[in-house]
């Protein structure tokens, strides 16, 4: 199957299974909604506390900031793993069990998070060291470029980790990483090319969206400066833009996840002999 066919198949599966995608995303949506509400409440309380007692307020703010980011990173990591497994089993077996979306809160999900956090820290440390050394040598742009290339190369291998952990739960973390490297050997450039056309479409889409937002915001900002009326920020056109931006972001994210799963299933996965691959989509 060519890259073009993989992109078409991914888009078709996203369209036909979209309602099941939304169903599986409910735990993530609830988590981020609660996080937003709790984070907003904490932020305003911190601002009030800092205005009353700046010294203790700043300390409380920094402690809460670190704790909230830690909770967000752990929760998002576990839920994202579960959602990827939910989609994998949806497209592979036609399963729509919500238990799959919560599989991040299991041994395998914790293993995934335990693998990715050290890798992210090591990558950040190496990129930061390179940036510092090259900046000291007057080559700041070179340091940024090398850090970007390093992150890209690592990302072209690590995206497959959740699916390998699911398909090979008996493997240790080291073996999973070696298997990911082996499976992506000879596929990294092809996998990168797979995503170039949708990325270009995505860039054009967001450029158009941003230009529309700029023209939309000009009269709103002008009215705000002249009258001081903040109600202009809640104009129907502004709300429509925010909803469109939010929905577009979700659809784009789902498309790329589907693209990755489709590539994995067609090029990299080795189905166990006693399992039959099928989908709720009768044409797949």
Low-pLDDT runs of 5+ residues are: none
Radius of gyration in whole Å, from Cα?
Answer: 22 Å
Any idea what the shape is? Answer: globular
Mean of all residue-level pLDDT scores: 82
Q: Beta fraction of the residues? A: under 5%
Q: Main sheet?
A: none
Assign the structural class, choosing from mainly alpha, mainly beta, alpha/beta, alpha+beta, or little secondary structure: mainly alpha
Distance between the termini: 13 Å
Continuous helix count: 11
What does this structure look like?
This protein is an all-alpha fold and 284 residues long. The protein has a domain at 3-106 and 186-268. The chain has 11 helices and no strands. Helix 3 (26-52) runs antiparallel to helix 4 (54-93), helix 4 crosses helix 11 and helix 6 (107-136) packs antiparallel against helix 8 (161-167). The protein is globular. The model has no long low-confidence stretch (mean pLDDT 82).
Identify the notable features of this structure and list them briefly:
mainly alpha, 284 residues, 82% helix, 11 helices
Task: Provide a brief overview of the structure.
The chain has 284 residues and is mostly helical.
């Amino acid at each position: 199957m060519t890259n073009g066919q993989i992109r078409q198949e991914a888009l078709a599966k996203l369209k036909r299974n979209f309602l099941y995608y939304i169903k599986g995303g409910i735990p993530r949506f609830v988590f981020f909604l609660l996080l937003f509400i709790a984070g907003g409440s904490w932020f305003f309380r911190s601002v009030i506390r800092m205005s009353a007692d700046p010294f203790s307020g700043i300390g409380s703010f920094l402690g809460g900031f670190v704790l909230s980011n830690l909770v967000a990173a752990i929760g998002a990591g576990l839920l994202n793993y579960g959602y990827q497994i939910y989609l994998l089993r949806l497209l592979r077996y036609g399963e729509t069990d919500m238990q799959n979306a919560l599989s991040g809160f299991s041994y395998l999900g914790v293993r995934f998070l335990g693998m990715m956090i050290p890798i992210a820290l090591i990558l950040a440390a190496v990129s930061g060291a390179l940036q510092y050394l090259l900046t000291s040598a007057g080559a700041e742009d070179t340091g940024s470029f090398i850090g970007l290339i390093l992150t890209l190369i690592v990302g072209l291998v690590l995206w497959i980790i959740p699916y390998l952990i699911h398909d090979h739960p008996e493997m240790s973390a080291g073996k999973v990483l070696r298997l990911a490297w082996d499976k992506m050997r000879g596929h990294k450039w092809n996998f990168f090319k797979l995503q170039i056309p949708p990325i270009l479409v995505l860039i054009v889409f967001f450029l158009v969206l941003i230009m529309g937002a700029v023209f939309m915001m000009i009269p709103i900002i002008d009215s705000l400066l002249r009258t001081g009326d903040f109600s202009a920020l809640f104009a129907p056109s502004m709300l429509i833009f925010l909803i469109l931006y939010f929905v577009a972001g979700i659809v784009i994210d789902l498309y790329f996840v589907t693209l990755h799963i489709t590539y994995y299933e067609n090029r990299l996965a080795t189905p166990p002999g006693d399992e039959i691959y099928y989908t709720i989509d009768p044409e797949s």
